[in-house]
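re: ur question from earlier - yeah i can do the single chain one, its not a big deal. heres the input i used so u can compare w yours
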Amino acid sequence: MGSLRKRGTPVGLDITWAVDWVRQSAQVISEHRVELLTLDREIGDGDHGENMDRGFQAVLPKLDDLSAGSTPGDVLKLVATTLISTVGGAAGPLYGTAYLKAAAAAGDAVALDGPAIAAILAAGRDGVVARGKAESGDKTMVDAWTPAVEAAEAAAADGMDAAGVLAAAATAAEAGAVATEPLIARKGRASYLGERSVGHRDPGAESSALLLRAAADTAAAAAGA
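and the output i got, formated as tokens:
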């Protein structure tokens, strides 16, 4: 956490990236809404895509109300409170907690470097674990978040910049989501299916991978600007 820079010494990804990430997240979730609905219809309530789309669309107009001097942490907190109040099912509290814990880890930093990005991802994952009581292998979004955190921490330790850390996290999250397909669900509504949940990808893991890829893509664009 020592790599989180204090206000006035911007290094890494700043408020512009954070806002762009949210906008890209809303676009990606909208584009994959039907896919997420289908995945959730197979082993869940069938509303994950609709709920996530509604939540991120609700965040968009609020971005225009951010005050001057807002930080990435402020953006993460805005996402958290909006998702908690607008997203139904388990996704609202889980994602809301993830973004809220990430915001707390970001603190008042004006910009986030590689280790700081790894720290906020770890905080988000830990929030999901604490709220959902799930572990790796339970066929939940944790199966995308945990490999993402591990990859981010390894990339940060290797000296990668923030964009590189997010790229590593996104790739690991995507692999983690795919790896949920052969698992037997042990948490959530999917757990009621037992072995019938095998062969289906967890929708929460998939949406997590989509959001982390959006973070990586916007970071890459910022780095190339």
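Residues 1-10 have pLDDT under 50 and may be disordered. not sure if urs matches, ping me
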